[in-house]
Design a protein that fits this description.
By secondary structure, the protein is an alpha/beta fold. It has helices at residues 15-25, 36-39, 43-52, 68-79, 92-102, 120-125, 133-146, 156-163, 194-199, 209-212, 217-229, and strands at residues 6-9, 31-35, 57-64, 85-89, 108-112, 151-153, 172-175, 204-207. Helix 4 (68-79) packs parallel to helix 5 and helix 7 (133-146) packs across helix 8.
């Protein structure tokens, strides 16, 4: 069974490209992330096909944010697809509504803290309160977990600090912004290698472009899996 700590971000334009990627990766990858960029290209249909027909685990990265009633209704509809992870923004009212919508399903609700593509200048431009970005991530993570989130999305640098929170006991930490040694950082600003992220306390690492843009995506994924096999996660 492949190591499901690796989640491959399927940031490709449509279902056809997604199926081509999964065919290239074959049985080396068992967990895929499908995000907003794929939504109008048949993302939900692809998620259902990979889950039901190929037995893959699916992380639907929607980062939902709205009033409570709308969140609850949206999550209830998504939960019917029997997917594994769903992201919402970490505001407590959003998390509580998402938990209500997911009731009775096995789908995990993951709260977004602060996007890994953002730095303090970006937060200032968005009128986010002053403070060190790491402190803000910890605060948002704690509030989201207390509101009922099954886990959080956070950068590799913050994974260890979140893992140390009392509220994080038994919860999931999923880290985007993961780049193998030598890979292009792209638009990510708070990054680490897969091994560093897991050693810092992450349960899963999300890797996209370094795999699907590689000349040999399967070999790129296997390199990351070998790296992950050499490190043990920090105990929850």
């Amino acid at each position: 069974m492949p190591d499901d700590r690796l989640i491959v971000a399927m940031d490709v334009p449509n279902v056809v490209a997604g199926l081509e990627l999964t065919a290239l990766l074959g049985d080396s990858v068992s967990f895929y992330k499908i995000g907003l960029g794929m939504l109008t290209g048949g993302g939900l249909a692809l998620a259902n096909e990979l889950k039901q027909d190929q037995g893959k685990r699916i992380f639907l990265d929607m980062k939902l944010f709205d009033i409570s009633a709308t969140i609850e209704a949206a999550v209830r509809g998504i939960a019917a697809f029997d997917l594994d992870f769903l992201t919402v923004h970490g505001d407590p009212h959003v998390v509580r509504a998402a938990r209500q919508g997911a009731a009775g399903s096995d789908m995990k609700i993951l709260a977004v803290t602060i996007l890994t593509s953002l730095d303090r200048n970006d937060l200032d431009a968005s009128c986010i309160k002053a403070g060190n970005i790491t402190d803000l991530v910890q605060e948002r993570a704690g509030l989201a977990l207390m509101a009922g989130a099954d886990g959080v999305i956070a950068s590799p640098q913050e994974a260890g600090l979140i893992r140390a929170l009392p509220e994080a006991a038994g919860k999931l930490i999923v880290t985007p912004g993961v780049r193998p040694v030598g890979a292009d950082r792209g638009d990510q600003k708070r990054v680490a290698t897969p091994a560093q992220a897991v050693a810092n306390g992450a349960d899963h690492v999300v890797v996209g472009r370094p795999i699907w843009q590689a000349a040999d995506p399967r070999a790129a994924a296997q390199d990351i899996l070998r790296e992950l096999s050499s490190v043990q996660a920090t105990a929850p």
